[in-house]
């Protein structure tokens, strides 16, 4: 049976599933319930200085739903903990004593002054927590006060504060990065330069999730007004995966441990983050949607998949896909595929034809001998796989590689050799091929 135990920066946990810094980790009661349910660790909701912040007394969340009311994206305008610092510290200390086998990391956010960080780090160390996570990602409320993403968007500040923290604590320092930036590699490099032991990402994305068309105000609406908030949930996973991969394959940050965050809902989501370099994954929206017991599905699913694939430990999965992440110009332009429709599985809905006919390459028939019949026209098919994406029947449409003969669309012989854009004759900046 697969061993799901993790050792992240020396922080041990029975599995890689941690609850992210958020409402589910705001107090002892929640965290104990989470540990009883089976979570491997938590990042305690972000602590700040006293007096505590004040949250709104009204709607804090908004959501984007699918047609079946499944939650696709989640928006929040909640700030860091609004409980007294001493209360949080006392509970953290008690939980760590009661649950020594679980990871307990404390998220922190204080003004960008060295003494402020020294003071709170000393107090957190007294709790015997396993580490700290520097919250440089919160995109609302705190950023207007010069904290959160206001720090995370300035690499020089990230490096400076990270260095302060490394100088003044023995605990591992994880830097939580904001996605509200053009190139995630720059803040990651800054964290690395400052001595960070790891990075975690992504935090939430700046967003207005919807508009109340009766009040003509953003939702969630507080007394007739709304504000931008942080977007998370399944919809942000592709953005998070890309950012994790960019850090994992960047020569300047390669090898820097990563805790992956962003839309993890299923074991497959977690496995994808780990394959791209994440040593642990943090979950929030899924727990808030389905409750703490969702971790049972995460554990069972990941364990079963690892057994099926022959992986014996989480370490064997972490980073396994990174070598296959490349830039577009390195993709093989001689690779040719065509769509294939399984006529036995086809339900004749016509979605593949409509999508291809209206918005793509007119490569799928609609009729044959006066009957509805959907078949690929190889002479027009570019292998874009739009039809696969819109088909409601799993595996009804697949992509088949053409390895011999000629491409029916171009008439050119199939070339088995690898060739990319950097040497293509249409590229005005092509690299000349070396003479033999």
Automatic annotation (TrEMBL):
Signal peptide, first to last residue: none
Family: Belongs to the dihydropyrimidine dehydrogenase family.
Job of this protein: Involved in pyrimidine base degradation. Catalyzes physiologically the reduction of uracil to 5,6-dihydrouracil (DHU) by using NADH as a specific cosubstrate. It also catalyzes the reverse reaction and the reduction of thymine to 5,6-dihydrothymine (DHT).
GO cellular component term, pick one: cytoplasm
Subunit structure: Heterotetramer of 2 PreA and 2 PreT subunits.
InterPro entries named among the record's database cross-references: 4Fe4S_Fe-S-bd (IPR017896), 4Fe4S_Fe_S_CS (IPR017900), Aldolase_TIM (IPR013785), Dihydroorotate_DH_cat (IPR005720)
Region Disordered, residue ranges: 404-436
Known EC number: 1.3.1.1
Protein name per UniProt: dihydrouracil dehydrogenase (NAD(+))
Biased composition (Polar residues): 419-429
């Amino acid at each position: 049976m697969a061993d799901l135990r993790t050792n992240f920066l020396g922080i041990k946990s029975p599995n890689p599933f941690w609850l992210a810094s958020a409402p589910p980790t705001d107090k002892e009661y929640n965290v104990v319930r989470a540990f009883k349910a089976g979570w491997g660790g938590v990042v305690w909701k972000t602590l700040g200085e006293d007096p505590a912040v004040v949250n709104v007394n009204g709607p804090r969340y908004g959501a984007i739903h699918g047609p079946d009311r499944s939650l696709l994206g989640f928006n929040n305008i909640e700030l860091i903990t609004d409980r007294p610092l001493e209360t949080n510290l006392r509970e953290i200390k008690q939980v760590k004593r009661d649950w020594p086998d679980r990871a307990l990391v404390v998220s922190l956010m204080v003004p960008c002054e060295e003494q402020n960080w020294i003071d709170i780090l000393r107090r957190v160390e007294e709790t015997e927590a396993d580490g700290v996570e520097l919250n440089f990602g919160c995109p609302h409320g705190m950023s207007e006060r010069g904290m959160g993403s206001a720090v995370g968007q300035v690499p020089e500040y990230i490096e400076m504060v990270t260095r302060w923290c490394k100088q003044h604590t023995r605990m591992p320092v994880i830097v939580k990065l904001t996605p509200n930036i053009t190139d995630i590699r720059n803040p990651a490099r800054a964290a690395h330069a400052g001595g960070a032991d790891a990075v975690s990402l992504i935090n939430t994305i700046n967003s207005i999730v919807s508009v109340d068309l009766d009040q003509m105000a953003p939702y969630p609406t507080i007394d007739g007004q709304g504000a931008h908030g942080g977007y998370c949930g399944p919809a942000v996973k592709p953005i998070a995966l890309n950012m994790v991969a960019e850090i994992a394959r960047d020569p300047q940050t390669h090898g820097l441990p990563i805790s992956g965050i962003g839309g993890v809902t299923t074991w497959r989501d977690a496995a994808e983050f780990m394959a791209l370099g994440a040593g642990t994954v943090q979950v929030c929206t899924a727990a808030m949607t389905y409750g703490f017991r969702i971790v049972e599905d995460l554990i069972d699913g990941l364990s079963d998949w690892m057994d099926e694939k022959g992986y014996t430990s989480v370490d064997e999965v972490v980073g396994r896909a990174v070598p296959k992440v490349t830039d577009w110009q390195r993709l093989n332009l001689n690779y040719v595929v065509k769509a294939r429709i399984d006529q036995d599985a086809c339900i004749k809905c016509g979605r593949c034809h409509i999508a291809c006919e209206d918005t793509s390459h007119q490569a799928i028939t609609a009729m044959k001998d006066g009957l509805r019949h959907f078949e690929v026209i190889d002479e027009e098919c570019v292998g874009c796989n739009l039809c696969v994406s819109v088909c409601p029947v799993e595996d009804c449409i697949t992509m088949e590689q053409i390895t011999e003969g000629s491409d029916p669309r171009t008439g050119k012989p199939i070339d088995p050799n690898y060739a990319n854009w950097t040497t293509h004759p249409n590229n005005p900046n092509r690299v000349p091929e070396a003479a033999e």
